[in-house]
């Protein structure tokens, strides 16, 4: 993968958040490509429980300052950056005080999902793409991890479909079993529709529970990776019947070769 450019967009990444299936793979896969001589960028949300001082985050003034519209409301975009120690890997953080200045990631102390998680996901997707445009950095592959990042394939295939910068870019989604209970705001489909995305293309989001959000993301990806050994039977079947190129689950020991081959096949 030498000199290939891969953009990693994830809900969670270690060492900035606790270790789990998504956050660990969102570190291990970019590191593997970096070690192979590939060029990588990692993007994640700047949740309020990330310790900015300890991880030495700092704002990138030249990238910050634009406004993104979410459901007809202007929201300021702040970009921060940090480096993973010892790895020479830069991580970009999408920030906005309204959406991310809280002491947790997806739910409050009672375990109740934040009511605006749908808007946070939309803002995150747009923020990533707008920042990459400002960087003028053309990815060969965009690899998406975690449900908070799952709006990105939808926006790439519709809202940004005419961007010459991404005309050759392939989108890969890793699908995990790590989910959430209940559903996001029932108006989510209309908020996405506000951006000119045809409602028939996102019909699954009429009921925006975990499985339907992931199905919509699968529908808009060029390749799928089953990233959990215990993925639900219904999602596994959906992936297998999607007619998209997909990679079955690969263990920690064997993922490097499997992922590299899959990337090469897509390109």
Keywords:
267 residues, alpha/beta, nine-stranded mixed beta sheet, two-stranded antiparallel sheet, 20% strand
Task: Label the overall shape.
Answer: globular
H/I helix tally: 9
N-to-C order of helices and strands: EHEHEEEEEHHEHEHHEHEH
- Specify the helix fraction band: 25-40%
Oligomeric status = single chain
What's the arrangement of strands in the largest beta sheet? 3-6-7-2-1-8-9-10-11
Distance linking N and C termini? 11 Å
Uncertain regions: pLDDT < 50 for 5+ in a row? none
- Using only C-alpha atoms, the radius of gyration works out to 17 Å
Overall average pLDDT: 96
Major β-sheet, in short? 9 strands, mixed
Structural category: alpha/beta
Question: Could you explain how this protein is built, in words?
Answer:
With 267 residues, this protein is of the alpha/beta class. Helix content is 31%, strand content 20%. It has nine helices and eleven strands. The chain has helices at 21-35, 52-55, 97-100, 117-135, 152-157, 188-193, 210-219, 233-240, 255-266, and strands spanning 5-10, 39-45, 58-59, 67-70, 73-76, 78-84, 89-95, 141-145, 170-175, 223-226, 246-247. The strands form two sheets. It has a nine-stranded mixed beta sheet, sandwiched between helices. A two-stranded antiparallel ribbon has the order 4-5. Strand 6 and strand 7 (89-95) form a beta hairpin. The longest helix has 19 residues, at 117-135. It is globular.
What is the compact description of this entry?
This protein is of the alpha/beta class.
């Amino acid at each position: 993968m030498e000199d290939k450019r891969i953009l990693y967009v994830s809900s969670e990444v270690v060492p900035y958040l606790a270790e789990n299936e998504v956050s660990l793979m969102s570190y291990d896969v970019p590191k593997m490509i970096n070690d192979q001589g590939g060029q990588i960028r990692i993007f994640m949300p700047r949740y309020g429980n990330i310790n900015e001082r300890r991880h030495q985050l700092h704002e990138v003034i030249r990238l910050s300052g634009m406004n993104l519209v979410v459901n007809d409301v202007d929201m300021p975009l702040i970009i921060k950056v940090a480096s993973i120690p010892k790895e020479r890997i830069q991580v970009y953080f999408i920030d906005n005080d309204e959406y991310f200045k809280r002491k947790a990631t997806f739910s409050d102390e009672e375990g109740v999902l934040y009511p605006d998680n749908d808007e946070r996901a939309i803002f995150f997707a747009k923020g990533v793409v707008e920042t990459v445009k400002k960087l003028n950095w053309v990815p060969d592959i965009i690899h998406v991890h975690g449900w908070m990042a799952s709006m990105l394939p939808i926006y790439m295939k519709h809202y940004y479909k005419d961007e010459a910068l991404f005309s050759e870019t392939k989108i890969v989604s890793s699908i995990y079993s790590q989910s959430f209970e209940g559903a996001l705001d029932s108006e989510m489909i209309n908020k996405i529709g506000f951006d000119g995305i045809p409602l028939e293309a996102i019909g699954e989001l009429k009921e925006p529970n975990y499985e339907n959000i992931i199905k919509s993301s699968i529908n808009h990806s060029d390749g799928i990776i089953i990233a959990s050994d215990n993925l639900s039977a219904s999602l596994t079947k959906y992936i297998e019947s999607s007619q998209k190129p997909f990679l079955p689950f690969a263990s920690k020991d064997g993922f490097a070769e499997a992922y590299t081959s899959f990337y090469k096949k897509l390109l």
